[in-house]
Specification:
434 Repressor (Amino-terminal Domain); mainly alpha
């Protein structure tokens, strides 16, 4: 599974993976993302499903490239559109 698939399908695990790879604490990422460390913890444990704007703040905090973030947003929108088509 590549970073984009993981971001769309298992955001919490991706956040933890990238944070740990950088050697950052929950507090360090929370400061960079503009949220609390408990919020980051809940994301990583899949106890929280953050809004798209919060997800983007976390990805930016993790220093994910603008190119990857742009592709992520496109995939999220495509996935939502596909779900709408299925429900109509």
């Amino acid at each position: 599974m590549d970073i984009l698939d993981m971001a769309v399908n298992d955001f919490g695990s991706l956040v933890k993976l990238l944070r740990v790879r950088k050697g950052w604490t929950l507090e360090q990422l929370a400061e960079r993302a503009g949220c609390s460390s408990s919020f980051i913890f809940r994301i990583e444990q899949n106890m929280r499903n953050p809004s798209l704007d919060r997800r983007l703040a976390v990805l930016i905090g993790l220093e994910v490239s603008d190119e990857v973030i742009g592709k992520y947003v496109q995939q999220v929108i495509s996935k939502k559109e596909g779900m709408r088509r299925l429900s109509s």
